[in-house]
Each structure stands twice: as structure tokens, then as C-alpha cells.
Amino acid sequence: MSDPLVKMRGITKRFGGVTALANVDLAAYAGEVLAIVGDNGAGKSTLIKVLTGVYQPTEGEIFLDGQKVDFASHAEAIERGIDAVYQTLALADHLDPAANMFLGNELTKTVFGVPILDNKRMRSETERVLMDRLGVTLKSLDAPTESLSGGQRQAVAIARAVYHEGLRVLVMDEPTAALGPQETARTLKLIQTLKAQGLAVILISHSLDDVFEVSDRIHVQRRGQCVGRVVTAESNTQEVLGLIVGAEEAA
Q: Quick one: pLDDT at residue 248?
């Protein structure tokens, strides 16, 4: 296998006297889906927040294309090609999909020397990205986002992330939570589409069914540490569950 696109080495994160992560290594490759699994409190969310610049590590290093990087903020991580779609999606439900996709980064045009919103271009760009990058067509771009299905809302949030041409690593935090079977299937298909485009997709999920359907490798967290890594095709649910709960320790 080629060198990892992104690598985390010896990541430790402390909040006062609490150690949320202890000496965690992680590697993700271009064109793969890496799943991170573990019970609540295992350190999954803290780990990805370090990767995406939300938190700065107490100890440890992050490498992108073999070069050490330091992110002082989430915005800096995005500039370097690392972004995340969280479970909450961070969508403004009362706005339409195009307004959500460009929220905070609206496109403008100048009319008689006055800058105004370029709604037509934002709409066409939203349609283009949804179709070209995700293979998704919405029946209407005029309706508020709250009227969309869960899978469609997920697609809008993903489109907002992949609109940045430099995106190379996308973290997806519980993307199928609260979705029905059909919407879950559509979202997993979106993940496979992104993988095929050469992105490194890091999937955090409590659903081992979803993990085994789309991931290439699985990174298991327990009590702030990485307790195992497996190749998905060479493992099974029982083995991964055993790592999550510490079956060998209990025995």
C-alpha cells in the first residue's frame, strides 16, 4: 500500500486532569474508507476533532502527505483539505439547499457598483456539485432544507464540504444515525462515491452493519486508546465487538 494521505502519531489529548486520548496512532489512505468504532467515551469524537483542527493535541503529531502540519483552527484544516460532516449536519433548516451550501461563503455579483448575492450562480453550482460529485438530484431547490429527507439533507451537507476543490480527507460522524433503511442505503452509496473519487473517508459509526458494508479498514478505540486495527474483509463483527468491549481483557 502507498504512503498514507494523513497520519496521526502519538496523539494525546488532556482536558485538565482527564486524559481523553492516550498515544493514539491513525493512518488514512486516499481512496479508502477507514471506520473508527468504539463505545461512547472511547475517544472517537475527540480524535477527529484533533484531526480537523477543532482541538489541538496535548502531545503528538499530524502529517499530511508526509509533511507535519499544525492546525490552530478548523478553518486551517479545511484550507489544507480536511473537513468533517457531523451528525448534526449544521444546516439552517429554514434556508434552501443552495443557501445552506454557501452559508458564510455566499457568491456575489456587482450590479451598478453594488455587490449583491448571486442566487442564480449559487443554485446552479449546488445542482452541479450534487449531480457531478454525488449523483444526487433534488426535486426542488426552492423548498426549505427542513422539508428534505434525512438522506437528502446529508447530501447537502456533504456537497458543502466537497465544494472545496482541495478537499482530500472527509470525516463523517454517524452519517446514518436516525435514517431509515432506504436513506441509509443512499448515504452509504454516497460514501462509496466519494471513495471512488480518491478521497480518504473516515467514517465514525455505531452501526457495525454499515461499517462492514463500506469500510476497507477498521480502527477500534476503547478508553481513549487504539486497541486494534483490522482489515474489514479479513475480520467479522464478533472480532470487532470483542475489541470494542475488551473481551480478551475480561477473559
A: 57
3: number of Cβ within 10 Å: 11
| Assessment of whether the complete model's pTM goes beyond 0.85 | yes
Residue appearing with cell numbers 422539508: 147
Among 62, 73, 85, CA closest to 171: 85
Residue ranges of the chain whose pLDDT lies below 50 = 250-251
pLDDT at site 88:
83
DSSP state letter for 66 = T
Q: 145, 160 in Cβ contact below 8 A?
A: no
| pLDDT at site 249 | 52
Angstrom distance (rounded) from CA 36 to CA 48: 9
First to last CA, the chain: 35
Q: What is the largest CA-CA distance in the chain?
A: 76
Q: Are 141 and 96 in contact (CB under 8 A)?
A: yes
Cβ atoms within 10 Å, residue 242: 18
